[in-house]
Amino acid sequence: MIRGVLRKRGASAVDRSVFSFGDLLGESLAGMLQRPARSALTALGTVLGVGTFVAILGLTATASSQIDARFNSLSATEVSVEDKASEQNEFAAPAFPPDADERVERLNGVRSAGVYWPVRPATDVTVRSAPVGRADDGGRTQVVAASPGVLGAAEPTLSQGRIYDDLMSDEGAYVAVIGSGVASRLGITTLETRPAVFVGDQPFTVTGIIENTERKADLLLSVVVPRTTAEKIWGPPAGGSATMLVSTELGAAQQVARLAPTALRPDHPEYLKALPPPDPRLLRSGVSGDLSQLFLLLAGICLVIGAVGIANTTLVSVLERTGEIGLRRALGARARHITLQFLAESGVLGAVGGLIGTSLGVVTVVGVALARDWTPVVHPATAAAAPAIGLVTGVLAGLYPAWRASRIQPAEALRR
């Protein structure tokens, strides 16, 4: 009993080593500043990871805002009306009346409206730029009958010429507007010579070449002729093949879709089916969600790469400082003191890398937005959380090297 008491008294006579917070910061800073180049390279992994994280999230938010504007200006202002007369009555004539454009354009909120249908599938004709010659190039060309309102609703950009107007359409003029793809394939480079395209044996004078469109991009690969001319040559559209394209003011698409069938056919509104644009909120959220998930995955990969770099460099530092660690242990440093020191070093490197990476990420988002004439969007939560993410990444990366350092025995270390 007495021996046991003496042992306890002897043990209590030895003070345990104390490692204060100030000592921890001092030793950690000294360890990092001892090899500044290595510390900078170690922090570089976190800089790249966090910078990529902030840049990707910022660019995603910025791109999402541009998607919002695009949906609002185009998708939310487009209505399609389909001919369903043949499904309701097999003996019914085409549902669109001759004055369909004027009827719909009288609705509030409508900018332009027009009826179109493909005439190529109904008539086995070829398209050429000369009355004779090979028809291989023209075999892939689609011929579309369209009222002038279709070209107005499609909002085309012309590289040359003009689109045909209501007067040409009412007179049944033999004119055509062709897409840039068709013009290139047929070898039409200028309208100064008044070129013509031949649909079968029928010539059409080219009045314009479409370079781009906001809607109905297939017009770039089509020959577009007036609706009245197409009916005179090939007859009315086949059952269910005609469609009306309507462009509306922002916010009017849903109302126009409800009223269009009745305005066109008050006697049989069921012969027509209006397709309003999808809800832009659901469409935006779906696209934005997909972009965010993809880019978050890429940002996570970058952070993992940065963490692996910190872990590798810290582990090498532990192996190089084995003698120093052994000396500290021999002088009374406990295992948890060594663990805390290396965790502090890796955590500080991660936090510093997170701060620098956040700054670089924000600068990248602003630079890209200015270059593309966009409005930069960076959520404050992202900028605030990024340095903390760097700190956590550094601490997690230093767990294994710190544990290895704490396992080094003083006697073994000093023998090396």
UniProtKB/TrEMBL annotation:
It is found in: Cell membrane. Keywords: Cell membrane, Membrane, Transmembrane, Transmembrane helix. The chain crosses the membrane at residues 41-63, 294-319, 340-371, 377-400. It is a multi-pass membrane protein. Residues 39-253 form the MacB-like periplasmic core domain. Its main location: membrane. The keyword Repeat does not apply. Residues 297-410 form the ABC3 transporter permease C-terminal domain. InterPro entries: ABC3_permease_C, MacB_PCD, Macrolide_Exporter_MacB. Pfam families: FtsX, MacB_PCD. Belongs to the ABC-4 integral membrane protein family. This is ABC transporter permease.
